[in-house]
Specification:
This protein has 104 residues and is α+β, with helices and mostly antiparallel strands. It is built from three helices and four strands; from the N terminus they run βαββααβ. The protein has a four-stranded antiparallel beta sheet. The radius of gyration is 14 Å and the shape is globular.
């Protein structure tokens, strides 16, 4: 199993707009071979730091299945409007990938 996560620092006050972008995106993940689960996670807000941390988390059958999706038309469609909302991001997302080594 492979876990793919992107960490986003979203400028304070833009949290709802960021969540709406994710809700409205053109995603067909359920149709992608090897896809298992997706979650958008919202971290605790730390006002003095000026941002809220979000994590997009997806679970895949394998790293190969995830990699195939990143090269697909489905991936391009899901990310086609990403540049339109740059004002809410404090820097680019940070990708982190994990292979399962133990678990139920």
């Amino acid at each position: 199993m492979y876990f793919a996560m992107n960490r986003f620092k979203i400028a304070a006050g833009h949290e709802e707009a960021f969540e709406t972008v994710w809700e409205d995106r053109d995603s067909s993940l359920a149709e992608v071979p090897g896809f298992k689960e997706f979650r958008l996670l919202r971290g605790d807000t730390v006002p003095e730091e000026g941002y809220t941390l979000f994590v997009s988390s997806s679970i895949w059958e394998s790293r190969d299945a995830f990699s195939a999706w990143t090269r697909s038309e489905n991936f391009r469609a899901a990310h086609k409007n990403a540049a339109e909302n740059r004002a809410m991001y404090l820097g680019p997302p940070k990708f982190e990938g994990f292979e399962a080594v133990e678990g139920a």
